[in-house]
Amino acid sequence: MSTDNEWQLEQERVDEVTTQIRQAIEKLEKEVGSVRGEVVEMRKDFWDEVTINFSEADDVGETSTNLRQQSEVLSERERSHKNTFQALSKMNKLVSNPYFGRIDFIEEGSKEKESIYLGIASFLSEKEQDFLVYDWRAPISNLYYDGAPGHSSYDTPSGLIEGEITLKRQFTIRDADIKFMFDTGVTIGDQLLQAVLSRSSDATMKSIVATIQKEQNQIIRNDKSKYLIVQGAAGSGKTSAALQRVAYLLYKDREHLKADQMILFSPNPMFNSYVSTVLPELGEENMIQTTFQEYLERRIGREYQLEDPFVQLEYVLSQKDDPSYEARIQGIEFKSSPSFLTMITKYREMLAEKGMMFRPLRFLGKEVVSAEQIRIKFYEYDQSIRIANRLELLKDWLLKELSLFGKSELNAPWVDEQIQLLSKEDYHRAYQRLKRKQQGKKETFDDYDLEREILAKMVVSDRLKPLRKWVKAIRFVDTKKLYRAIFNDPEVLSFISSGVNLPAAWEEISRFTTDQLQAQELAYEDTTPFLYLKDSLLGFRIFTGIRHVIIDEAQDYSPFQLAFFKRIFPRAKITALGDFNQAIYAHSSVLQAASPLGEIFGTESTEVIRLTRSYRSTKEIVEFTKAMLPNGEEIVPFNREGELPAVHEFTQSGKMEEAIHHQLEQLISEGYESIAVICKTADQSKDVYERMSNKLSIPSKLVKKTTLGFDKGVQIIPAYLAKGVEFDAVIIYDGSKEMYAAESERKLFYTACTRAMHLLDIYSLGPVSPFIADVPSEKYKRSKELQSQ
Ligand SMILES: Nc1ncnc2c1ncn2[C@@H]1O[C@H](COP(=O)(O)OP(=O)(O)OP(=O)(O)O)[C@@H](O)[C@H]1O
User: Fold this and answer.
1) Where does the pLDDT of residue 67 fall: very low under 50, low under 70, confident under 90, or very high at 90 and above?
2) What is the DSSP string of 748-783?
3) CA distance 555 to 445
4) Got the DSSP string for 158-206?
5) Nearest 5°: phi and psi at 159?
6) The whole model's pTM is what?
7) What confidence score (pLDDT) does residue 62 get?
8) What percentage of the chain carries pLDDT values higher than 70?
9) Residues that bind ATP, according to the entry (predicted)?
10) Which atom, in ligand 1's list, is nearest to the CA of 188?
11) What is the distance, to the nearest Å, from the Cα of residue 229 to the centroid of all Cα atoms in its chain?
12) Which residues are annotated as a binding site for ATP?
């Protein structure tokens, strides 16, 4: 343990380093000058800016412009300004908290001990250019996270460096003052981690650089795997590790990799805001943040009214009495499975030979080119040409046909009518056109025939413009009808489903899918397959500029969706993090026990890392929640103690709400800063909010799927929206058998309970959920109020 003297020496060093940092800041401030107030904005219009590639996904080289090039357009000057600004922002963070760790290392063959201090950025002394602080992401810093006192080594670009660690020390420094200092062993001090974890939760996520654990470090610094899959228990730090990983990659590949070449997929907009502060806190720019639904909306939201995953989930949770319920569930499962993906792939193969469907080119009620003519032309092209390329040829042909048609219309009566209606500006435009045509010759409309010809051409060309655009966008392929045919054309079905086990309720599924498609609606389970079919015919729209894709809450995605990610981000490494125990959707999850991920990604390029230690909740809460899971024994709590979870059973809802109200007031007065009342559905949350919010002594908030920001205080929230976030105290509104009994609800209940950091209280109207009944009674406190009036 460190002595007073050492403490003093360390404080002197802090003083010396911060003085130097202050001097560096002064210098940088002069350089930055006018750009001081610049903020680097998160890119919101990402989906609009990206390149569209109508060829195959593998033809990466064919994409002409992409995000990478866009960023290269930044002038050198702007770039250096930005760099200086970023350096300044890092120095400003370092000055009050220059470092959090120290390692003493004696390199093999050398007698000299080197002390390495780790902070969020490197800092060099001006004169000697010594590293006074090493960036936590530097190769040597790995010793701190991975090594233990004794023999150790770290990797550098020029090979492995071996040696001996003689000291590993942790600091908490605030305002350039050492508040805590510990010497630690193998793991990064339980003491500091204890202190960090017992804090109250925040409205935004915090960086964990000072206390990254060894197994989390493996995720953060993984450079090898093309596909990295993390299966981690609730609260094991998956999201935290993912964000630190982004920071690490930005540092490691800083010459080539920019923040806008990395994209994070999150479960909802509120979660996006919750995690958006971590990278800026580390002095880094945020990666692109989005949701899969946002992507779907951009791509097919104009063609269909899209159902979002939350509406689907609400249906699954609350419409069990619907006569088509069972069929819908089977449909959701099947349409997200690899089998359905196989069917779509076969469909595409079939369409290369037969069965393509087109929409005719119509103009003013006339058929310019019929669907049948287009079909015949399509199959006249050599079958070895890919569908997407044949469609390109078709496009050129149709544009020519359209131009011939335009010529044939020049003398049509409607053209004269339109000429009569032309405005002054139109005339002017025509005149300009004439001028160009005459090229210096007489430029007046004195020749009536020429004038009419020019005006007619203009009128026809203007009127055909939308149609030309339509052709250029390959809208003449009837993708809607093609997708529908899977459900209403027995010939198509029998061709593509050979060898596939269709679900028992296929007929019913087909009926309601067809009805829905007819009504221009697309259920959530149909969105990805429809888009996949569309893109496999027209060409995948790929994002070649993206180098890293991070998928958080990966268990929410179906194998089908993952296959889609792989297609649209062909050059990216994918990091998918999730927990199969929190797979709350009815569709099959990529993280199910028999994981289909290997199938999709190929086992050689896929690495799986498991995280079993849970940091969020107290030991008591982890012990209680893990007992609800069939394989819960794998989850290990971090050693932080608290109260046993409490379960209260009521017979009257009025009494139950009174008790909840009382408990909320109690928690507020005890200083709990964030408290969630977690309900099962959005409707239930709304009801509870309406009844309870005005009785509370502080304002509360109803969280909906559209809620953008995450706040402290009392939140009333449906369980599925609470996923990924955490609260000091959690009150489960109605953990009864009535609410959570079906096997499919186990994961939802588990997810809700694992949001609690320090306190978990479950209120049940009537007998408690069997998932609680499964938990050994010594793991929780129980009270019953059965005799109420
Ligand atoms: N190494 C660490 N040091 C300090 N805090 C940590 C560490 N790892 C995790 N935590 C804390 O544990 C909590 C849970 O982390 P995080 O949200 O990243 O977990 P998760 O695995 O994504 O959880 P879930 O799957 O339940 O959403 C957070 O408060 C986080 O700050």
Assistant:
1) very low
2) HHHHHHTTEEEEEEEEEESSBPHHHHTS-GGGSEEE
3) 69
4) TEEEEEEEEEEEEEEEETTEEEEEEE--SSS-HHHHHHHHTSPP-SS--
5) 120, 180
6) 0.85
7) 36
8) 88
9) 232-239
10) 1
11) 15
12) 232-239
Rg (CA), the chain: 32
For a mutational test of ligand 1's pocket, the pick from 206, 212, 239, 265, i.e. the residue with the most ligand atoms closer than 8 A to its C-beta, is 239
Give the pLDDT confidence score for residue 81 in this predicted structure.
Answer: 66
The CA 507 to ligand 1 mean position distance, Å, reads 45
> Is residue 64 pLDDT above 60, yes or no?
no
Place 495 in a pLDDT band, splitting at 50, 70 and 90: very high
State in Å: Cα 572 to ligand 1 middle.
25
Which residues have C-beta atoms less than 6 Å from ligand 1?
193, 196-197, 206, 208, 211-213, 216, 232, 234-240, 579, 615-616, 724, 726, 754
Burial of 704 (0-12, 13-18, 19+ CB in 10 A): middle
Q: How far is the CA of 211 from the centre of ligand 1 (A)?
A: 11
- Determine contact, residues 262/547, Cβ cutoff 8 Å: yes
Mutation test residue for ligand 1: of 240, 551, 609, the one with most atoms within 8 Å of CB:
240
HSE value, Cβ hemisphere, 13 Å, CA-based, for 465: 6
In which band, very low, low, confident or very high, does the pLDDT at 755 lie, cut at 50, 70 and 90? Answer: very high
Looking at the CA of residue 553, tell me the nearest atom of ligand 1: 25
Contacts of 252 (CB under 8 A, 6+ apart): 137, 223
What's the gap in Å between 546 CA and the centre of ligand 1? 26
ipTM above 0.90, yes or no: yes
